[in-house]
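Fold it.
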Amino acid sequence: MKNKTGLSNIGIWGSSRYLSRKTIRSVQENNRINQGVVYYEPSEIEAFFDNNEAVGGMLFSGGYKTIRNRAIIRTIECAYMQGYSVAIIHNGNAELENELISYLTPLNLLDLVNAKNPFYEPFLGLNNNEILQYILSSSSKEYKIGATGRYYINGISDFINTKHIHPYTDMYITCPHFTLIDKINTAEAKGKISANEARTITSQILQGESEKGNIEAFFSALSQQADYILAKKKNLNKATNFVQTALQKAIFSIDVRYASNTLLINLFVSEAELLLSRGNKVFVIVDGELFTTNNLLKDFINKMGSSSLVAISSNDAFSAFNGDENSFYSFAGKCAKIIISRHISAYSCEKISNLIGTYDKQEIVPTFSQNTNMGTFWSYGNTKSASINTKRESIIKPEEIQRMADDEVIVFDKNNNEISFVPII
């Protein structure tokens, strides 16, 4: 009869020392807590904004434009309620304009400037020195006006003033430069201005004459970029701009059409800077890739602070920063709220994932060891065990961003120290 030794005598094949189910559940729960993502039921994007919460910089990137527009409307409401002078600058977002009209027009709180409402007059309400500063600060590399140009510009402004007319942009655009001094002399001869006035204005024109070509080129380019929205003599009674809208406690919106309309965008930035210099709190919403090649707007964004806030809305905000990681992360780091949805670019997804951050993830790591028993009965086997290791992992992986639906968003709310995932209804 064969001796029945039993398992106790022949060794345990595949002997295991697995972690208990309780430990596994504990690891999973720790990872959920460490990752820190709150999963909400389908909700409205508006629910993630609070009028009583301190407003800050905002970043809306990816997904449906409709959802980003709704986030912009709530941002406007929050900023306005907290005393900010609010403006929206965009390039042809008619859908956003319709949202603004629907929400703000019944409240008489909207000044809308676009091709259908060509009432933009950046010089409205400014004195001659402020007009001069606007022009000089708005001149770009391609249309730079030298220091002596200030005399020529002041000469034009002073001559306009003698007609008891407040200078407006179209007058500088249509200025008859080659016959300007002749017109000054004619005005003196007809007794419309004094000899002293004529002498002073002519002196200014002559001092700055070396910059006449640059000034003419500046206003010629401005005309090409902005003629579709500039107020003209026939509709000056409807003229408006960001500064005047802010004085009226309303919201200003301007469609600049193209990012290449550098001088037009620069004039808008000059308005925001003037408001800041006057002590206003300013909130500028930039919709679209308008600052990719515009240094003045980019500088305004980069120096964002508590009195000068910016919200950026784009289908790919990282690309809008022209791939400049430092600028992108610097801006995002100062934002109170970041709302992310699906992106097509894998590279942008990677950068946005890095922005959201990492967490300590626990991993169950199996180990195997081979053992041999050389006692009375020869036997051998493998021993399986497991240990828990910790590694850093993305809170939201790049591929998860890329796989999101266009109506799903990740809300990174720094005020409430919360990262949430929510389908939007």
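Residues 1-16 have pLDDT under 50 and may be disordered.
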